[in-house]
Amino acid sequence: MKNYLFLLLFTIIQYTWDRLTSYCHTNTGEILLFVHHLISAYIYVGGFLFNPLYHLIFVSIVLIHWVTNNNKCFVTQITNEYCGYKEDKKFKDVIQIFKIYKIHKDIHWYLLIGIIVYDIIKIYYK
Protein backbone atom coordinates (compact mmCIF):
# COMPACT_ATOMS: atom_id res chain seq x y z
CA MET A 1 0.00 0.00 0.00
CA LYS A 2 2.87 2.38 0.80
CA ASN A 3 4.28 1.80 -2.68
CA TYR A 4 1.04 2.89 -4.33
CA LEU A 5 0.85 5.97 -2.12
CA PHE A 6 4.43 6.91 -2.98
CA LEU A 7 3.72 6.49 -6.70
CA LEU A 8 0.58 8.62 -6.41
CA LEU A 9 2.38 11.30 -4.40
CA PHE A 10 5.24 11.42 -6.91
CA THR A 11 2.67 11.71 -9.71
CA ILE A 12 0.77 14.51 -7.99
CA ILE A 13 3.93 16.49 -7.25
CA GLN A 14 5.16 16.19 -10.83
CA TYR A 15 1.70 17.02 -12.23
CA THR A 16 1.24 20.02 -9.91
CA TRP A 17 4.67 21.39 -10.78
CA ASP A 18 3.79 21.10 -14.47
CA ARG A 19 0.45 22.85 -13.89
CA LEU A 20 2.20 25.78 -12.21
CA THR A 21 4.01 26.58 -15.44
CA SER A 22 1.36 25.90 -18.08
CA TYR A 23 -2.38 25.70 -18.60
CA CYS A 24 -4.40 23.06 -20.42
CA HIS A 25 -7.51 24.22 -22.25
CA THR A 26 -9.66 21.06 -22.01
CA ASN A 27 -10.72 18.56 -19.36
CA THR A 28 -9.69 15.72 -21.67
CA GLY A 29 -6.25 17.29 -21.95
CA GLU A 30 -6.00 17.59 -18.16
CA ILE A 31 -6.90 13.92 -17.73
CA LEU A 32 -4.39 12.90 -20.40
CA LEU A 33 -1.75 15.06 -18.74
CA PHE A 34 -2.35 13.44 -15.35
CA VAL A 35 -2.23 9.95 -16.88
CA HIS A 36 0.99 10.92 -18.66
CA HIS A 37 2.49 11.99 -15.33
CA LEU A 38 1.35 8.70 -13.79
CA ILE A 39 3.06 6.78 -16.60
CA SER A 40 6.20 8.88 -16.17
CA ALA A 41 6.24 8.32 -12.42
CA TYR A 42 5.84 4.57 -12.92
CA ILE A 43 8.73 4.54 -15.38
CA TYR A 44 11.04 6.33 -12.94
CA VAL A 45 10.14 4.62 -9.65
CA GLY A 46 8.11 1.54 -10.60
CA GLY A 47 11.12 -0.76 -10.78
CA PHE A 48 12.00 0.05 -7.19
CA LEU A 49 8.45 -0.29 -5.88
CA PHE A 50 6.72 -3.02 -7.88
CA ASN A 51 7.29 -6.24 -9.80
CA PRO A 52 10.49 -5.71 -11.81
CA LEU A 53 9.40 -8.09 -14.58
CA TYR A 54 6.21 -6.13 -15.29
CA HIS A 55 8.16 -2.91 -15.04
CA LEU A 56 10.81 -4.23 -17.45
CA ILE A 57 8.12 -5.15 -19.97
CA PHE A 58 6.45 -1.75 -19.65
CA VAL A 59 9.67 0.25 -19.98
CA SER A 60 10.78 -1.91 -22.93
CA ILE A 61 7.49 -1.16 -24.68
CA VAL A 62 8.02 2.57 -24.07
CA LEU A 63 11.54 2.34 -25.51
CA ILE A 64 10.29 0.44 -28.57
CA HIS A 65 7.54 3.03 -28.98
CA TRP A 66 10.08 5.85 -28.98
CA VAL A 67 12.22 4.06 -31.57
CA THR A 68 9.28 3.36 -33.89
CA ASN A 69 7.74 6.83 -33.45
CA ASN A 70 10.81 8.91 -34.43
CA ASN A 71 11.88 9.60 -30.84
CA LYS A 72 8.47 11.04 -29.96
CA CYS A 73 5.94 10.00 -27.36
CA PHE A 74 2.43 9.42 -28.66
CA VAL A 75 0.92 10.49 -25.33
CA THR A 76 2.83 13.78 -25.47
CA GLN A 77 1.60 14.39 -29.01
CA ILE A 78 -2.05 13.72 -28.09
CA THR A 79 -1.81 15.76 -24.88
CA ASN A 80 -0.27 18.70 -26.74
CA GLU A 81 -3.15 18.56 -29.22
CA TYR A 82 -5.88 18.47 -26.55
CA CYS A 83 -4.23 21.12 -24.38
CA GLY A 84 -3.66 23.51 -27.26
CA TYR A 85 0.12 23.43 -26.92
CA LYS A 86 2.58 23.76 -29.77
CA GLU A 87 3.26 20.42 -31.42
CA ASP A 88 6.92 20.38 -30.28
CA LYS A 89 6.25 21.23 -26.60
CA LYS A 90 8.20 18.88 -24.34
CA PHE A 91 6.50 16.91 -21.57
CA LYS A 92 7.46 18.42 -18.19
CA ASP A 93 8.58 15.45 -16.17
CA VAL A 94 11.26 15.58 -13.46
CA ILE A 95 13.94 15.54 -16.16
CA GLN A 96 12.56 18.77 -17.62
CA ILE A 97 11.60 20.36 -14.29
CA PHE A 98 15.09 19.96 -12.79
CA LYS A 99 16.76 20.63 -16.16
CA ILE A 100 18.57 17.28 -16.04
CA TYR A 101 18.20 17.17 -19.82
CA LYS A 102 21.02 19.75 -19.97
CA ILE A 103 23.47 17.00 -18.99
CA HIS A 104 22.88 15.35 -22.36
CA LYS A 105 20.20 15.84 -25.00
CA ASP A 106 19.40 12.09 -24.99
CA ILE A 107 19.30 11.69 -21.20
CA HIS A 108 15.85 10.03 -21.37
CA TRP A 109 17.30 7.24 -23.51
CA TYR A 110 20.18 6.66 -21.10
CA LEU A 111 17.85 6.68 -18.11
CA LEU A 112 15.50 4.16 -19.70
CA ILE A 113 18.38 1.86 -20.60
CA GLY A 114 19.70 2.20 -17.03
CA ILE A 115 16.26 1.40 -15.65
CA ILE A 116 16.03 -1.68 -17.89
CA VAL A 117 19.45 -2.87 -16.68
CA TYR A 118 18.33 -2.31 -13.07
CA ASP A 119 15.15 -4.34 -13.65
CA ILE A 120 17.12 -7.19 -15.26
CA ILE A 121 19.57 -7.28 -12.36
CA LYS A 122 16.73 -7.21 -9.85
CA ILE A 123 14.95 -10.06 -11.67
CA TYR A 124 18.17 -12.09 -11.89
CA TYR A 125 18.93 -11.83 -8.18
CA LYS A 126 15.35 -12.40 -7.06
Give a quick precis of the structure.
With 126 residues, the protein is mainly alpha-helical. Helix content is 73%, strand content 0%. It is globular, with a radius of gyration of 15 Å.
Any chance you could write out the topology, listing elements then pairs?
Elements: H1 2-21, H2 27-49, H3 52-68, H4 74-83, H5 94-97, H6 107-124
Helix pairs in contact: 1-2, 2-3, 2-4, 2-6, 3-6
What does this molecule look like?
It is a single chain. The chain is an all-alpha fold and 126 residues long. 73% of the residues lie in helices and 0% in strands. It contains 6 helices and no strands. The longest helix has 23 residues, at 27-49. It is globular. 22% of the residues are buried.
Count of DSSP strands? 0
Helicity level, as a percent range? over 70%
Q: What is the chains' assembly state? A: single chain
Query: Gyration radius, to the nearest Å?
Result: 15 Å
The rounded distance between the terminal residues' Cα atoms is: 21 Å
Task: Spell out the key features of this protein.
126 residues; mainly alpha; 6 helices
